[in-house]
Amino acid sequence: MKKLEIIGGKKISGTISISGSKNATLPILASTILTNKKIIIENVPLVKDVETMAELLSNMGSNLKFDKKKKKITIINEKKLKTFAPYHSLKTMRAGILVLGPLLAKFKVAKVSLPGGCAIGSRPVDIHLDALKKMGAKIKIKDGYIHASVQKNLKGCTIKFPKISVGATENILIAACFAQGITKLRNCALEPEIGDLINFLKKLGCNIHRTGKRSINVTGVEKLNSAVHKVIFDRIEAGTYIIAAALTKGRLKIKNIIPKIILTEINFLVKMGVKIIKKKNYIIVNRLKNLKKIDISTKPYPGFPTDLQAQIMVLMTMAKGVSTIKENIFENRFMHVSELRRMGAKIKINNNKATIFGMSKLNGAELMATDLRASVCLVLAGLVPSNKTILNRIYHLDRGYEKIEKKLSRCGAHIKRLN
Ligand code: UD1
Questions:
Q1: Ligand 1 site-directed mutation target among 49, 90, 120, 123, most atoms within 8 Å of CB
Q2: Is the full-model pTM beyond 0.85?
Q3: What are the φ and ψ backbone dihedral angles of 226, each rounded to 5 degrees?
Q4: Spatial distance between the Cα atoms of 283 and 257, rounded to a whole number of angstroms
Q5: Which residue has the CA at smallest separation from atom 9 of ligand 1?
Q6: CB atoms within 10 A of CB 341
Q7: Same domain, 195 and 293
Q8: Whose CA is nearest to atom 10 of ligand 1?
Q9: Is 32 found in the same domain as 12?
């Protein structure tokens, strides 16, 4: 099994170019089920989850070409797609559930595996299913599969999501594009990746209007156009590399981003003592001062992202004073803590609150990755001590970080992949 070997103690300095967002690419790919016109998606990140989604669509019958050199996916759905998404596609990539809405909207029937269990929490899909039922779908769960059908078309209606959910907002937004009449979505998630999905769907000819902060109205259409779309940057990857530079006292230019999209993260890091110069399409990170303690609660966008919680925890272990993190999105998202403790970090957990005692001296160790963001947090921790860290189970990392060891080693890290 593949591992990473890291010998820390080196400054991360230089320039890193941020890839396209995985969390934007996946719903955009799922939404291509709606159309049989030519679609070109650019700036696609070369990560495993995107490959898994591309395979799922190909297996359904989509004529999909992934040009990895150009980071471009071209799709033409010439024939009717199969309306089945098997367990093996959804067990590692929960975003596979995003094919449910478009399959049902376009073909009136779908059989989609319930997504696999997940280390970070139970992650149900009841909000997705309740919304589709309200739009007229009949849904049964049998043998681990969602069997969904609708007689004629999904019907527009008002859907107030009981909880802010990124996945449910995306699934229902896509389905509503082919529903009859107007679907009024309320209490929607506002993540920038949803904005990117909306921009893509509008290029296809979908009729979507944001009518308030968390309100979106979608008027169903019958036909769609072809489109070319460049995926938005990966804000979590950007945040991860800001933290890498801050941890190692490096000077790092992070380019191909839109800084105003990650203002919350930037402001928290500046409060901790990280110097960040913001330009239009890049930032420069420079840590000169000692780090200060901070208290963070994860929240839906524009709050602090749960996907950056594990990474900022590593920075907190270096800060002066006692920092806290309240994880409000997932009940079990502190899987990285036991591994950080093995490196010497002092962290207490009480339900969804972590207390991080700063000024820890981290030591290299052999570690086990448990999920995507936990893995990258351990890579970051490994950049600090000057002895060796081995990170096992890096398939989690490969789900969402493009060429991480190359990007870091070009900026001075000693990091290599062992087979
Ligand atoms: C979530 C994160 C997203 C992150 C992704 C991967 C939020 C709001 N969402 O998106 O930023 O990129 O994980 O780590 O930060 N829920 C239900 N029933 C449902 C759907 C969700 O109870 O049908 C609950 C979840 O358990 C969770 C909350 O709602 O507590 C938000 O979940 P949701 O946004 O749907 O999760 P993802 O789309 O996976």
A1: 123
A2: yes
A3: -85, 165
A4: 8
A5: 166
A6: 16
A7: no
A8: 166
A9: no
